[in-house]
Amino acid sequence: MDESGGSARLFEQQLTPAERAAIDSVPKGLFLGGRWRDTPTTLPVLDPATGQTLCAVADASPADGLDGLTAAAAAQADWARTPPRTRSDILMRAHRALLADTERLALIMTLEMGKPLAEARGEIAYAAEFFRWFAEEAVRLDGGYLPAPAGGSRFLVTEQPVGPSLLITPWNFPMAMGARKIAPALAAGCTCVVKPAEQTPLSMLALAAVLAESGVPDGVVNVVTTADPGALMTPLIADSRSRKLSFTGSTAVGKLLLEQCARTVMRTSMELGGNAPLLVFDDADLDEAVEGALAAKMRNIGQACTAANRILVQRGVAETFAERLAARMAALPMGRGTEPDVVVGPLIDADAVAKVERLVADARRRGARVLLGGEAIAGPGTFYPATVLTGVDDEAELCHTEIFGPVAAIATFDTEDEAVARANDTPYGLVAYVFTENLRRGLRVCEALETGMVGLNQGVVSNPAAPFGGVKESGLGREGGFTGIDEFLETKYIGVKV
Ligand code: NAP
């Protein structure tokens, strides 16, 4: 182990033949109406582990974006009329195709985003599961037939697809965040225009090709990549043919998009930023708490909306917990995600490293102690080592903003009420984690936490069968679970005179 908390293995190298083949296998154009379209300008895709350019993809103009919406609008009626069982079969084929293609797709994701291959494989399985889950849900749309309380008529209640949907996704889970939107949209009978993040377009382009091969008809899924998301999406949001915006990304951009959607009263789903507290009580199983914290902190190299941002530990166990967590984090090998055993890959870009450096420096100025790591690593690549800080002051900036890096920020508390109050002292409300062996306390605290999700004695909550989403400034709506499809359905009531 070195000072930085891991054995830094940094790379500046050409792609291997297998890596080159994976990148070459991805279509690089826009996917519009079932056809691939090249554009006059392109945008580069970089490997964050080396800084080297992997390839270039199409750079859509606003007119290309509108062509995508035109294709989605043209395909809408047929897709809505397609029997749910047929839609379900197509989604199930996509599920199987993704799983069968895991190695290629995982490698593409690791190269463009940096996450270790094992995590990328896990994300392909997670993404594939959304297609299976919503294939199953496609044939279970709800409805009702009720007598009017006063008699004389009947209420017929039915669910219809909301219509052409705009889906915007972030770079941190480049395939799963798209799958979590595309699968329910298609299951509900909606067509869509998908805009992946500029830094990770390849996973979505590869997914589009897999979906086409699985039988998704032309125009049902359209994908546009661009260097100027505002210019591309603003006219699409303003267009009355768009009926829904489903966005996953930062709260700042989410608010901007909500304002734009207000102008046409467009339906929205918003999966936004988080500031997850992780509470460890002195009656917790400490081994479980350390493993849970490790998972909640280090998944995706800390670049997850669900990442444990503030770790609050009851005073009696705080020192032991911090030492054990630091020992576990110190043992995590760092390097390019394609290397075997690597757990800590690069951050997405130099700005991400600079942000983590700034947050750690601020916490230190306010009295935090560095137990592990704490210094960025010189390039090539944008690496920051696993870091543990203790004695973090509540006023430190990292307690109020997403760290989005492998930094465990630990502070202590004395009482349950204090822990809950401090955990809730944030405008965010996506997820929280609670570690205690006391069932009553566990349930009491879970109910008191102002978040859409809580992990009780577990550090990962994401599951396609569970309703994922936040409260407060972390978002609107839920993805996955039984209600995930509702985000793409409108309830229609038909009054029937009898
Ligand atoms: P971001 O900057 O908000 O970008 C998200 C997406 O929005 C990208 O595709 C981006 O395109 C696009 N975008 C940016 N400005 C836009 C505009 N004016 N109009 C239309 N689209 C626009 O977020 P990020 O940095 O990619 O992702 C990290 C954030 O996502 C974190 O805050 C994280 O917590 C959140 N997140 C939330 C969840 C959840 O489920 N709640 C899951 C994952 C991530 P470009 O890439 O071209 O900028």
Automatic annotation (TrEMBL):
Enzyme Commission code: 1.2.1.-
Active site: 271
Residue span(s) of domain Aldehyde dehydrogenase: 40-494
Domain of life: Bacteria
InterPro entries, sorted: Ald_DH/histidinol_DH, Ald_DH_C, Ald_DH_CS_GLU, Ald_DH_N, Aldehyde_DH_dom, Aldehyde_DH_Superfamily
Sorted UniProt keywords: Oxidoreductase
Matching PROSITE patterns: ALDEHYDE_DEHYDR_GLU
GO MF entries: oxidoreductase activity
UniProt keyword annotation of Oxidoreductase present: yes
Signal peptide coordinates: none
Family, as annotated: Belongs to the aldehyde dehydrogenase family.
Protein name, entry field: NAD-dependent succinate-semialdehyde dehydrogenase
Highest classification ranks of the organism: Bacteria, Bacillati, Actinomycetota, Actinomycetes, Mycobacteriales
